[in-house]
Amino acid sequence: MIQTKLKINANKECSHIAPEIYGQFSEHLGRCIYEGIYVGEDSDIPNKNGIRTDVVEALKELKVPVLRWPGGCFADEYHWKDGIGPEENRRHMVNSNWGGVVEDNSFGTHEFMDLCEQIGCEPYLAVNMGSGTVAEAADWVEYLTADGESDMAKLRAKNGHKEPWKIKYLGIGNENWGCGGNMSADYYANEYKKYQTFCREYGDNHLYKIACGPSADDYEWTKELLKRVNGCHTRGISLHYYTLPTGDWGHKGSATEFDEKEYYQTIQQTMRMDEVIKGHLAVMDKYDPDHKISLIVDEWGTWYDVEPGMNPGFLYQQNTMRDAIVAAYNLNLFNKHSDRIAMANIAQAVNVLQAMILTQADQLVKTPTYEVFWMYRDHQNATLVESHMLPGMTGTEEVWVPALSESCSIQEKNGEKILTITLSNASLKDPAQIAIELEEGMQFAGEASITELTGEVHAHNTFEQPDCIMHQDKIEQWSGKTKTIEVGPCSVYKVSVHVKA
Ligand code: AHR
């Protein structure tokens, strides 16, 4: 049994938790867009304008705040004009990054904006810098957001959308140190400055421009980039860090078959996210001392071998309780860094990598990762409060990792204060007994709504057994300054409880 104390100062407000930390990513990759999200109007699968109704409903339940599109690596070979106008006239291209399949561009700008409207989320577009042109990028922003009589606005109206859309988040390129053009940081920074200059703001549309930041612990990229782009309308720089069980791209391992050692290695690898974030924030402190630029973790999550028999370029993987622990740990971490992290987008929403949703024909399965995002919804737009806990240690003889993670936030509803506590226990064998202590005269004041997610670490939901891993809810009455709870091994726990002075 792990025994520890969680001390919470609910009066010490630290930072606003941007809802965008709970963002998603949808790329033209494998079966994410086609089959997963878009099936076309003539499909037998229930849809609105070709977009799957079941997927939209599931994403709405998560309160998805923002959706990134069209990539990923795909973004730097995407030419947006191929994806507008009558479907029969749209260009068919080879998706050379992902499986070499033919992309028919039937899902384009209008379909994506419709998807965001159906979900009720902000769009986050990635502009093609790698193989596109400045004029193409400038035209896209004008097409989307300009009102009036310009050719781009008229073209949008001709294609069925007279009113301009609002676009806030605009990424300039993707992984331009790799699939987005193999650029050096100083070359990218110059290109970024050029591209961002011509991505104009029309009417009252304001762009939040995001430069391509580093991969994992490439602090040099962050330094060279920030030296050049700070002050150039840059609001964010991106960070991509994936969790591979052993950190080895050559031997990623199976999503469902792993031993204890590989499990704890995965947890160790995912916990490197903290070190990586702190490393980049230290560089940002130096080159952006006024903190005008935020960190945008716009690709994160687990990356395993594809499921046997699948196209290796489709990145389709199952999702177990191991993924739930990974998700819970990272979301707690992003909450704790919410003073500097303005957005995070897990890769990806449907059928790709650490997905929320898996689909097969008309069936839909919610993954353990979906459950964690559902449990953590109450942190969105809340205020992070100060909390401390010794995390205990767990693991095997060879791999030893902190067992517990936590984050706590407060929000007011109808004049009452509600404290949300989320915890994860990565230990496979030890339950954790946690004495929660409220400091500075605060007390628990009534209803505590508790949700738990637990299961054997390999357990996952399938099309045959979609409800194997599901959260369990209960209500308790909490009072006084302390409350001791037990969090089982391999579990995620959430409580939203009324508190008062
Ligand atoms: O999410 C899958 C891929 O991972 C993205 O296309 C790319 O940006 C990253 O390497």
TrEMBL record:
Pathway: Glycan metabolism
Highest taxon of source: Bacteria
Record-linked InterPro entries: Alpha-L-AF_C (IPR010720), ASD1_cat (IPR055235), GH (IPR017853), Glyco_hydro_b (IPR013780)
EC number: 3.2.1.55
Enzyme class: hydrolase
Entry keyword Hydrolase: yes
Name the UniProt record assigns to this protein: non-reducing end alpha-L-arabinofuranosidase
Pfam family, one: ASD1_dom
Family to which the UniProt record says this protein belongs: Belongs to the glycosyl hydrolase 51 family.
Subunit structure: Homohexamer; trimer of dimers.
Catalysis performed (reactions): Hydrolysis of terminal non-reducing alpha-L-arabinofuranoside residues in alpha-L-arabinosides
Domain (Alpha-L-arabinofuranosidase C-terminal) ranges: 298-491
UniProtKB keywords: Carbohydrate metabolism, Glycosidase, Hydrolase
Species whose genome carries this gene: Jutongia hominis
The keyword Hydrolase is annotated on this UniProt entry: yes
